[in-house]
Each structure stands twice: as structure tokens, then as C-alpha cells.
Fold:
Amino acid sequence: AVAIGHWAAIAVSLDSAGEIQAGNVLELVPEMSWVTWLLQVMPLFFVVGGFSSAMSLDSHLNPKDGGPAGRPQDWIVARMRRMVAPAIVLAATWVVALAIGTVSGFGALVAAGATAAAIPLWFLANYTIDTALAPYVLPRFRKNPVAVAMVLGGLFAALEALRFAHHAGVAGLEGFHHLAHINWVTGWLIFQVAGFAWRDGLLPTGGRLVAVATAFWTAAVAAVTVGPYPMAMVHFPGLDLSPTHPPSLALLLFGMAYSATALAAAPAVSNFLARSKRSWAAVVAANSVAMSIYLWHMTAAVIAGATFYAFGALPTADAGTAAWWLQKLPMMGLSAVVLGVIVALVAKVERRALLAERTPWNGGQASMLLAAAGVSVAFKLWTLGNVTGVAVGAVLLLALWYGSVADRSPARGA
Structure:
């Protein structure tokens, strides 16, 4: 869904001087924003991630074999190694490409491609932080789920009110409105905590869950019709009250509605997969390369766009028109083909990380949290939308990986 959404949103063309112009089709045709209500799946990803983290932490912190409880830092680094390892190949690839482009005189074009390829990586910046917090939030949530929900909800609401007041021009908020960016963590953490609640059986089921989903859908629609929020559930340049930079109230309502709908359907999906071994095998196979698909789909789009540019076949019709889609669909098809080739080459890195034996972190909790924060900052820099951020973020990620995060135990090295 994310790959298709990003490929569809790309609006790349040539201006009158023959220079490449790249942007988001939603900037040019904002009435298409309703499509984002179908393809914005990241809130659900964080909910499912919370469920997965809670299940994994249960076995790590409370082993059933009577052995000693695992350390939080060992669990965090194991998850980070699985998550970051595929991104290291992407970082190294683009660092080399930038160096070659600079030396060969194509630095500007390669920089544009590197910036576009970094678009999906904001997710890893946030997911890294929420994953690092999971071993500490989960026990507190289980001790008092209502209190944790109220604290997170109250903090989110206060920061969202601060952002809204600044947007409305309320005086005296100079500098303070930047505090609203804390919701980069709080907003996505709320979805993760919803996954904890799902894991612990605290969510309603059946018809009651459908009713909850309906209530959230109603509130989300009101937020973008009666309320001040834009229809789009993804960010693009120039958008007021962005839904994701940081997460807004509208995204929170939408994400809860989307996730509650998915969870209501989950029993039926599970029953179907239990009856169909072939379908379940397909799910397992797809999940084993999911991160590779996510990380590389924009790189594939850059390669496809460069190919169309080389052959003078970039779309020339007005963005959003039927003619534009007819010109654009072949480029999306080539993106899918290129992505398939790339995934075939890099997927072994992801599979190796998924199956690797877990080895402990050589340090305490503070050093692990500091490393996680550094990785998150590296991803964030990578997604700033300029070549300096891409270069610094990618190099910093490589340095952190090879300097501290990567497992270099003798067994692993063998």
C-alpha cells in the first residue's frame, strides 16, 4: 500500500527549460486527498508492532522455562538489528552513488534521487524510538492501563492544542510551539500502546469493536469537514496542520478508526489463513521481505523515472488528468519490476537479520537507549529533504551501525 501510494503520488515532469520538476500530485490536485484514506496504513503498522513487541517481550522478560529474565537492552538491540540491517545496504548504496555522482558531474541529479529515495525513512526514525521505549512502557501499561492512556492522551492533546494555537496566530507562543514536535513520539506511541491493549485482550470485540470503529470514523470525518484539518492523511509540502509532521488529532482519530476496523476483521482473516496453508505461506514469504520492499520502493521509482527521462518519456499531461495517468502507469509498472529485481538481490540481508541468533548488548540500558536515539536522529536527518541531510544521516547511520549496534560476536562473524 505504501509503495503504490508513493508511486502514484510522484509528479515528475520537464519544465519549459528541460529541467526535471518533481513534486507530489496532491499539491497540484488536492481534491485527490481522499485516496490517502485507503493507503495510509502506518497507524495500523504501529498497532500491530505494539502487539508484536508485547508478545516478544513476554517471552524475553518472563521466560516460561524458568530461566533468568532477559535484560531490556538485549531485547532492544535485537529488534534494532533486525530493523536497521536492511537499511544499512540502502545507506551504503546511496553514499556511494552520491560520491560517484559528485565526481562524475551528475551530483545534482543523484542528489535529487537520493532525497526522493529517503522519503519512506521517517517511519524508522519514529519506530526506533517507540521500540526502545517498549520494555519500559509495557510494564507500566499493564500495571495501570487507564493511567498510561490518560497521560499519553493528555500530553498529546496539550501539545496539539499548542500547535493549533500557534497556527491560529495566538500571541506569546514564540518558540514554545516547537514543543508540539514531541508528538512525533507521543502520537505514534499511542498506536503502539493500542497494540499492547490488543495483545492483553483489553479491547472490545465483535459488534462492540465495530461500534468503536464507527465512532472513530465519524469523529475523523468531522475533523476534516466541520473541523480545521485537511482531508489528506499524508504529509506534502505546503499543507497546513500536517497530519503526520507531527501526528495530528485528525490522524489519531483516523488511525484508530482504520485500526479498529482491521482488528474487527482480524478473526475472520485468521480463520481464513488457518484453513489455507498456501495463503499463510504467502503471508510468511511476503513478511520476510517486507522491510526490503518498504526501504527500496522509492529507489526503484527513482531508477524508473531516470529511465523514462533518458528516453524522453516523462509524463507531459497535466497532473491528475486521465492522460497523465495513462502516461504515468507504465512508469509505475517499471518501478514494480525494478523493485522486484532489487528485492531479489537484497532480501537475503533482511532474512539473515530475521533469523540471526540474538546476542546481548555489550553495555547497560543507558548506552543502548543512547544508541537508539542516535539511530533515530540519523534516520531523521536522512529524511530532511535535502542532500546534506541525506549524506550526513546515511553516514551517521553507517557509523553507528558499525561502531556499536552491529553484532560482531565470534559466532556471528563466523
